[in-house]
Amino acid sequence: MAFRSEYLAKVYEDIEKRNPGEKEFLQAVKEVFISLEPVVEQNPNIEKWGIMERIAEPERFIQFRVAWVDDSGKVQVNRGYRVQFNSAIGPYKGGLRLHPSVNASIIKFLGFEQVFKNSLTSLPMGGGKGGCDFDPRGKSDLEIMRFCQSFMTELYRHIGPDTDVPAGDIGTGAREIGYMFGQYKRIRNEWTGTLTGKGLSYGGSLARTEATGFGLCYFTKEMLASRGESFEGKRVIISGSGNVGTYANKKATQLGGKVVAQSDVSGYVYDENGIDYKIVEKIYQHRGLISEYLDYVPTAKFVEGPRNMWLDVKADVVLPCATQNEIDEEAAKAIVANGAMAVAEGANMPNFPEAIKVYKEAGILYAPGKAANAGGVATSGLEMTQNSERLSWTFDEVDGKLESIMKNIYKSCVDAAAEYGFGYDLEAGANIAGFKKVAEAMIAQGVAY
Ligand code: NDP
Fold it and tell me: pLDDT tens digits, residue range 273-290?
């Protein structure tokens, strides 16, 4: 049995029964529950107030039709989602994912993780997530605009600056946020910071674009320092060449690391001289494929199949920044055998649980996404503050706040793990530190009679 506590075992069994086939969601819940065992044992109020039952059940789950017209005049239908998971500590906050793989399980796992992540930032934000099984790849700009407008024509009634504030995620960048914001404003006739990740000319925050990748490297820097190490001279590999991967490369390079390989869904590029983030950024900005890197640097190599990067490339620091469940047990063993000293997650849940076990058994450093990639949502929180103040801060001001938030998150994880007997286990620490604040707020707010 996965749990010592009868209460947790029973709650988890019920969750399995109520969410059949939702494997990503169940994986995320189980991982969190395992770390919370000592907290539950030491705090009888958690069981008394049904916190574990409530925390894994979204406050609201919305599914809707998104019909739009393609360039040939044909009507297309997609399925949209928004999960409003927990609002105990603030308005729901979390990104919108546009990808053909999106389904209820993926949206719920992301929303569940977001509750703890947002709590860790120490900003007043509850957890939510949304998206659609729409595939932006190959669509014209007008098709993207029509899709975003149709999506927002339903979503607008569920969100608002004090209710639920969506942001970007896979497939949703500044362009998509712009179209959605325009439609929200048109329908509501109000200008509020209801979406974050906006363009700079209409309420966006400097450093929001870079925040998740930069924050990941600030967190990794702290973690490396715990072993007297730094990025200086380290070989780094990064999966994903989208928003997170691009700016993780930039910051890792600025901190003295050398990114020798970087992937996207098609494969990876490899260059002993270092992958230039400025070229990756250019390719990302026009949504090209990473193999185009060779047009700029013909001496670099392209290898098909992103998974091969984990198997083949020697690296000290590994930054998975693409998607969930990219690294299985075999790939994790290869990462360890290739000499890694640290794995830090820019993506949400990129490692299977078996892979995390491999890192822990090998004694290498491991940073879970809900802590290490929290810089994105933290900076979204800073964007909300600037919108409310009707002010905008400088890049350095935002970046400075981001770095100090990431340092605080790291410290909270270290302290919580130590307090509950997990030693230096940042995964357990992140779950515990994120959970405690939310649970306390839920208890304080009572249950409707
Ligand atoms: P993007 O859509 O900008 O980029 C995703 C990148 O990953 C693309 O290069 C994509 O390639 C690539 N990719 C997809 N599947 C694979 C795979 N199996 N192996 C290798 N590469 C792959 O998304 P983001 O950068 O915004 O998000 C990446 C991850 O980070 C997600 O897990 C997201 O939830 C998480 N995250 C993002 C935040 C943000 O602020 N954007 C905040 C916190 C977490 P291609 O384009 O060719 O499909």
Answer: 999 999 999 999 998 999
Please list the ranges in the chain whose pLDDT falls under 70: 1
Which residue among 129, 221, 234, 370 is the active-site one?
A: 129
DSSP string, 324-342: TT-B-HHHHHHHHHTT-SE
Token pair listed for 378: 């933290």
What is residue 448's predicted lDDT score, i.e. its pLDDT? 87
How many angstroms separate the CA atoms of 200 and 208, rounded?
10
Residue (of 172, 157, 155, 86) closest to 125 by Cα position: 86
- Asked if residue 428 is part of any domain, the answer here is no
What's the 3-state SS for 264-297?
CCCEEEECCCCCCHHHHHHHHHCCCCHHHHHHHC
178 assigned to some structural domain: yes
Pocket test for ligand 1, best of 97, 101, 170 (most atoms within 8 A of CB): 170
251 catalytically annotated: no
Same domain, residue pair 29 and 87: no
**Domain that residue 46 falls in:** 6-55
Alpha carbon distance 29, 372 (integer Å): 18
- In whole angstroms, how far apart are CA 120 and each of 41, 114, 207? 22, 10, 20
pLDDT at residue 190 in the model: 93
Total domain count for the chain?
A: 3
Q: Rounded to an integer, what distance in angstroms lies between the CA atom of residue 406 and that of residue 397? A: 14
Q: What does the alpha-carbon distance between residue 337 and residue 359 come to, in Å, rounded to a whole number?
A: 11
Dihedral pair phi/psi, residue 135, rounded to 5°: -105, 105
Decide: 210 in ligand 1 pocket, CB within 6 A. no
Per cent of the chain over pLDDT 90 is 99
The tens digit of pLDDT for each residue in 302-343 reads 999 999 999 999 999 999 999 999 999 999 999 999 999 999
Task: Kindly report the backbone phi and psi dihedral angles of residue 144, in degrees, each rounded to the nearest multiple of 5, phi listed first.
Answer: -60, -45
pLDDT at residue 449 in the model: 84
